[in-house]
């Protein structure tokens, strides 16, 4: 917890903050066992974490799209569909950005997102490699098939984007 959150708990006894603290307490034993390399590039990923893959999941045709992999990596998370930079300003840390295309103006958001999907490729898509972000391009219609708040698996190695049931 952050020091400000601790103060909030002490002052307000917010149920939202208490439930978040309990969740983190349950998660800590798993996170404590992760080992990280001495030198990292992009988003930190434990070296002993099981590699997630789209191959583990049953494919449902209307909820799965295959595009062109640009930057390897696999992530699961909530989607933020943003067609403009103004809409991108609503991005939250860890979300997977789905947009029509990107240019240099989108790069300030790369440090907070966990993956990128575009309908149209572009030079800036390759910047995702520098940030260690899974990236898939060429997913025509992705901005219409997926909605903000969908929970997805993005496999930057195979180029697959798949909607998953939301975690409980």
TrEMBL record:
Annotated PEP-utilising enzyme mobile domain residues: 92-159
Source organism, top-level taxon: Eukaryota
Any GO MF annotation of the entry: transferase activity, transferring phosphorus-containing groups
Gene name, Swiss-Prot/TrEMBL: pps
Protein name as annotated: Putative phosphoenolpyruvate synthase
Xref: Pfam families: PEP-utilizers
Record organism: Trichonephila inaurata madagascariensis
Organism classification: Eukaryota, Metazoa, Ecdysozoa, Arthropoda, Chelicerata
């Amino acid at each position: 917890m952050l020091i400000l959150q601790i103060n909030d708990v002490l002052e307000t006894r917010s149920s939202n903050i208490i439930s978040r603290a309990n969740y983190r307490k349950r998660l800590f034993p798993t996170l404590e066992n992760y080992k990280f390399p001495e030198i990292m590039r992009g988003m930190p990923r434990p070296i002993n974490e099981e590699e997630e893959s789209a191959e583990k999941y049953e494919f449902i045709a209307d909820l799965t799209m295959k595009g062109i992999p640009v930057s390897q990596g696999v992530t699961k998370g909530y989607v933020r569909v943003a067609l403009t930079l103004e809409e991108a300003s609503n991005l939250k840390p860890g979300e997977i950005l789905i947009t029509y295309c990107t240019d240099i103006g989108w790069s300030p958001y790369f440090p907070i997102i966990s993956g990128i999907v575009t309908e149209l490729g572009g030079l800036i898509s390759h910047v995702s490699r520098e940030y260690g972000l899974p990236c898939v391009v060429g997913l025509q219609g992705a901005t219409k098939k997926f909605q903000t708040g969908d929970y997805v698996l993005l496999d930057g190695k195979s180029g697959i984007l798949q909607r998953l049931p939301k975690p409980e």
